[in-house]
Design a protein that fits this description.
Largest sheet: 5 strands, parallel
Strand order of the largest sheet: 3-2-1-4-5
Structural class: alpha/beta
CATH topology: Rossmann fold
CATH architecture: 3-Layer(aba) Sandwich
Number of domains: 1
Shape: globular
Radius of gyration: 16 Å
Number of strands: 7
Distance between the termini: 27 Å
Number of helices: 8
């Protein structure tokens, strides 16, 4: 069975791929608005971890809507959620038997409700799998420490092909650097550089 895993190049989505690899032919799929070349980092990580890699183009209107939500809200949660749901829809339209992502049990964003998951499955005739749904951050960190080589740092400095990178770029272009600082809190990101 073929599975498309929504992939950022970070530790969560990489660990999800490793967990699913025994059961599916996993293809790592990075969703992009074409605003930055951040997807290249995900491709490099896919090569280093031995997985097939593809990209899927997201609709520009979705990025614009997400940025508008973030500016209005003053925080990124709803905008990122909006993009994640769109990205899952786009991957579900690809030729996979199942789709997955790297969301954890304690992720506030993005998250997909049971009803949203069932709707996605029914409309696209795919299985939606969340392999880290039983893992908290501590458990993920302990498994990753034994399994993956990871670079960690401030989100502005760590290359990663997640929605945040492109949304930051659009926000910066349309509203200036101060808007990026106002909307996105300081936090750390990870980038997988290989297997241990």
């Amino acid at each position: 069975m073929e599975l498309g895993l929504l992939y950022s190049g970070g530790k969560d989505s990489t660990l999800a791929a490793l967990l699913l690899d025994d059961f599916y032919e996993v293809t790592l799929v990075t969703a992009s608005f074409g605003v930055t070349d951040a997807w290249e980092y995900a491709r490099e990580t896919a090569e280093k971890t031995g997985f097939d890699f593809e990209t899927v183009e997201l609709e520009t209107a979705v990025a614009e809507e997400a940025v508008a939500e973030m500016v209005e809200d003053g925080y990124p949660r709803n905008g990122i959620q909006h993009v994640h749901q769109h990205a899952l829809e786009m991957v579900a339209e690809m030729d996979f038997d199942a789709i997955a992502d790297g969301t954890r049990r304690d992720d506030r964003v993005p998250s997909i409700s049971r009803a949203q998951a069932q709707s996605l499955e029914d409309r696209h005739d795919v299985d939606y799998i969340v392999p880290l749904s039983g893992f908290g951050r501590g458990a993920v960190d302990r498994v990753v420490e034994q399994t993956l080589s990871v670079t960690t740092g401030p989100s502005e400095e760590i290359p990663k092909a997640d929605y945040e990178d492109e949304l930051r770029a659009i926000l910066r272009r349309e509203h200036g650097e101060e808007a990026v600082a106002d909307v996105f809190p300081d936090h750390t990101q990870t980038y997988v550089t290989g297997l241990n």
